[in-house]
Amino acid sequence: MRLIFMVIAAVYMVLSAPPAMAAAEPAVRAVIAQDQHSVEITAPEETAFFVDGRKMNLPFFPQATRVILAAEHNGFSFNAVPFNAATLVVLQAPEGKSIEVNRRSYRGAILVRRGKDEDNFQVINQLPIEQYLYGVVPKEMPSAWPKDALKAQAVAVRSFTLAMCAQNRQLDYDIPFGAQVYGGFSAEQPAVTQAVDETHGMILTYNGSCIQSYYYSVSGGYTESSRDAWGTAKPYLQAVADVKTQSPQESWEKLFKPELLDQLLVQAGFDIGALDSIQ
To answer: Which of 76, 171, 239, 254 maximizes the CB count within 10 A of its CB?
Structure first.
């Protein structure tokens, strides 16, 4: 589902560009595929190729239009060339060029890491955060929307991304698969790229720290507090009345039989007997 709208409680937040970001742009490790047995890759001739940190020469790359990277019982194979006991393959694209994974283009580096199951792996795209936003914002909001809307979405995505990076810094990735809709280089749109560039480094903060700036398509008229939604109270994520939209999901109805509600409550640990009424 596209997430194309956000609400900002402006009284709590300050828009800022932290000095650290200006000095060195953070890199993002976004999972673009998981539980894969093989992937199809196309890369420029100058692509650097590493296996467990060792730079390798792949003489077949200039001739091959597409190559297949596959999981093997004791490593990987690359166009049937085995790399035994390997756990991590890295492909680094030359500056200004991209690598295709399953026919979708990505900037930066592609990391292929073996999973706990020896027969599969996850694919991670590592690149500067601003370039990552180029591929997220147009998937979360139509590029034809007003420029200020695109800029607001860019700030929300950047803030959410940095918060996720801080939360997952001890893991092998920053952004889990599906956490944000990410289309890579293939999804980039000039209007969105301009909006990202014009908000370069800008984030939403609370008490000087980057917030988890959740965003959504429609709230149905009222947001939920973080405490009630996830059990963690955040002062900047309170339940508030939302603006009315023209979304078809703004108002909806679903009917439940009392017997089903009784069953769902029991499954959730609330055995209160048969329902008499709901208020």
So the answer is: 76
